[in-house]
């Protein structure tokens, strides 16, 4: 019995894993290229205008508090890990991510410091964003986006946009990439001022997909 | 004629010059505290002195940058830290910057299962492994840098992370722009430890200068136009205070003594109208000081800074000797005759004072015996110089001095005031007995010339940086470093309990970073075997989405760890983290010492009690503040004891010299009365008596003896008596001026000495005058 269990588990796992890998590998190969399948490609000039308009509308009605559902796909995992909670933005600089499921966790980013708290593990730790360039890049991007600061966004990222105002997709590629701990690109989709998803692709192929609810929970 | 008079002067000048040259070049002046203490002191006392002088807490430097935008402060902090790290005189410099992954961290990583305090056998049970894996799953999805994530397959129990946690124990400090900042103010924080002792004042002063120069560089290099002038570096820590105290005392005493000397010179010039006399007046004092210095050097091999400072003050009474003689100058009397006339009184005064101080020669405290030798030699030489050198140097004719005494109606007023002496004695005694104010200064912190706001800032920086308190620590003593580590580890249970109960916020010991070989071997032995671990891991992974085989590297490093040779003091020698260990674990004589530092101690007694009841005598709890206060109190008691013995001898000598019990009594009563009134007045002014006041009282005693002996010496004519009194007036005016100025100093020590001698010389003069036998008895 035990013998059979021990043998069958790894085989089963590897099968599942192989399947998932194949599924996951397809999109990640083109992760950082702007899709044009969902919407019409736009000319550069139009794209610029649209980008400005998208960002402007995002900045005008900034995300204040939103419920999120996050799925994390990792090369170390056979099935993705899942979290949910709320995302809060206090303009111009404070970003909060409160995880409620599966366990309580919170990330509070204020200025350039990150406070991580995990009550069940008795962790309360402040990091400097400067110590974690990849994270800093990410935060900078999100801030610029939510503040409607196109110029700042372009300083940090190569920005490409596709779709229409009613169904846009932004792809942000950091201008400086760090092999050690890098973000390959950030992909955002939405409709007008509503930011629907944030997908962060890491250089190692892992990715995190954040779905934002349209309304305050 | 001129030539023959010049020869003795030349000879004296040459010998003084040679002597000074020798003294300056060859006599070492030491300032180390242990040299003042008896070598027979207890081990714990020696440890205390050693820690106070060179312990890790004395070397801690707390720094803060303020006065600019946070981003600029952060840049300055990074630049300053870099300059300090390159300087070579710092064991380590922390400013919150992430230290780069280097070889030493790789070494720590490789040895994580032997070094990490979190490693225990039950960590590797199925249940606990499962919990670790769940936590890693959580961490993995967090926006952590990928080098953390990369470690998951090798180190799923986060053994390395908990190890790093210990190394960066100050991880609660707020970080902004990549460096530490104060939690509530825009101040960038740094903490460093100097390689040299905190009380190596010259060395520390050069560190201070280096910091100032670095700040100038930083101002120049980081955006020179936008750097505000208000950017400044706050410094604190025992060494900063020590350097500052020395500077303050030096500065204070320099300008006060310069001013004092100016006034005294003016007074002497007015009185004697002669530069020659001014120079002559210095002859005995200079000769005495130089001889005293050489005598102390020949006996002890060095002079302590304290001896020099207090000894010179005590010998100061010698400036009065030639003044007494000069008062008797006149057209009818040659200067030599004038000197011979006052000589017996000078001799009696100098010998009795010297005997008074001399009792301290036999004290077990080397500081006191050196002081006694210095003062005795100085006084006796100065007296001898007055008698034998001065007559050779003095010109045959000198003008008559201004007879101050004739302008003051001593003879009529003084005897009527006789009652003041006993009344003030009784009143002072009664006041001292009744007063509820503390008589002695028991807290030497009050003697520090460091203003309270700087001490408050030190406390603030210390709190912000989570730096260990300077006040107390534990010392573990053992024959070798492994035993120190083992005994420190044994203490951990007790210490953790103390932390849990809130008696202190935390502690730090060498064994935190480098466990004993025994502990490392024990951990190796309890690490699970590969097959066992594989099974538990397999079970723990069930239901969790980790890839099969993901933790293969974990199994491998567990096997590798079991075959590592444990790290010890020698094998880490060349790694960057050796400095940290070395500051907490080091050889001491033929033994080894481990220092346990404590943070934010709340309950001293509880800690002390726990340490004493739980362990052998190899653990010492040192409360530096209490211990240093105790030391100063012991010193004070020693001075008091030997002073009493000295007074006993002095009475004998006086009795021998004056050959009359009544005369001895009439000499001693005014002195006793004035010292008592001095004490009463000091107490009334809110002064608490310290060692320094006592030293000053020694001088008052010498001065009092001088005044009374001269007031009471028999005179053949009324003129002569007027001259004697004039001399005493000049002497006391100079003393009152010099010490009155010193009393104005802001430095508590200088102020204390100044006020004591100022009041003392005043009361001594008055009482000696009041108690002097009336003129008519002498003439009849």
Structure description:
The complex is a heterodimer of chains A (217) and B (780). Chain A has 217 residues and is of the alpha+beta class. Chain A has a domain at 31-88 and 148-212: outer membrane lipoprotein receptor (LolB), chain A (Clam). Chain A has helices at 2-29, 44-60, 133-146, 150-156; strands at residues 65-73, 81-90, 94-101, 105-110, 113-118, 123-128, 157-164, 167-174, 183-191, 194-202, 207-212. Chain A has an 11-stranded antiparallel β-sheet with strand order 6-5-4-3-2-1-11-10-9-8-7. The relative contact order of chain A is 0.17. Chain B has 780 residues and is of the alpha+beta class. Among the domains of chain B are: 1-30 and 273-401, Up-down Bundle (Multidrug efflux transporter AcrB transmembrane fold); 415-436 and 660-780, Multidrug efflux transporter AcrB transmembrane fold (Up-down Bundle), CATH 1.20.1640. Helix content of chain B is 63%, strand content 8%. Chain B has 31 helices and 13 strands. Chain B starts with a helix and ends with a helix. The interface between A and B is large, with 46 and 33 residues.
